[in-house]
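Batch manifest, entry 17 of 40.
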Amino acid sequence: MLGILITVAVIAVVAYCVLKNYYPPIVLLLAGLLMLVCAWLMGVDPVDAKKSTNFVGFDFVQAFTNQMKGRLPGLGLNIMLIAGFSFYMDRIGASKALVKLCVKPLSAVRSPYVLLAITYVVGQFMALFINSAVGLGLLLMASVYPLGVARGVSRASAAAVIGSTCCLDLGPSSSNAMRAADLMSTDVVTYFVQSQIPVAVCVIATVAIGHFFVQRWFDQRDAARGVADGAPVKADQKDLEKAFEGAGPVHYALLPMLPLVLLIVFSPMVYDGIKLSLQTGILVSILIAFFVDLITHFDFKECCKRTSAVFEGMGKVFTSTVALICCAELFALGMNKMGGITTMIQAAAAMESAGVWVMLFIMLGIMVVATIVTGSGNAAFFAFSPLLPEAAASVGINTAVLVVPVQLSAGIARTMCPIAGVIIAVAGIAGLTPFEIIRRTIPVMLLALIVNVAASAVFL
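Output type: structure tokens
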């Protein structure tokens, strides 16, 4: 019981610190060390005897060293390479070329709320290749947002749809998906194709239809109440051209898709004669993009200079996501050593058949609350995901049944959070408060959570 109380108290302090904008990795690191100290006082060693430094003061830090050693060569390097590739695509204008190509057909859609539904689907597709929710949101606010408002939807409706375009963390470029695949001891492409896609298709359809009806209802209600939406936004061609300034030629739109295409083609599901790891696939994609850029511009020096974005991106994501993973895993290790979470898991397991659903809703509840409080789907998932395999084993179910809905719920919950980066960004451009945005995203995301659980139960 003492372990549960200490664990809950530490989680509350961590949530408060992150909410107050303290640097999340160091908060999780200190919280993890604190729980390891508490566990040691209760008679639990911080590390195994084989890995001990023979001095308990150093063993607390050794526990973190072990987490770093286990993550940096594999998952950490994968995430850094993905980030490096993403930064490079942005530097050469390939990301903007992809968005420009995808949003151009939207101007032909005349029905305003059909436009919103299609905008979400197109945005979610682009999120497979542009792994920055804020970056994609800003591009869509510059290109699709004026078009939607010009068609007659409210500013809040258009901004709410754009803010939710990355509500599902899908594909090999998602760090959450990489972590989930790692938990299931599989590669991220197999996880994406076999586990994520069946569930994601159902959720995407639900969110698109949900936005159609929910945003129309909000707009009709506001119109009936006489609520003004402010000055109309005009889809100015000059503004649109400015938004896509620096976009590469149209064939550059294919470059962000290279890693996904290569990894799917050279996978056991398509052709297993060639074994292509994610790391090698990313590096090959970078080289192909470099030569395409060189052939297009015939400026070797400038093309070489632009590749610096790869290493800049790797460094930036190390200070954020990779550091967060290592610190979050120490936090999770501390929780496990304390035994509080294990006690709750064992209690759910004792419920036999009902334990499966109890376990699922406990883990979903933890993930949703943690994401809404912190504003980060990554922070929440990395902190609590190590508990999922043990939780699944305790009730005798396939790990995927817990991992997939919980992993997807982190992104869904982020779209309901007023302090999430993408919500703040789109609200600022639309001249609205984040709460005006999430008021319209919450009903749709609640539907998405329900379908997420249902589809996972059916397909997994």
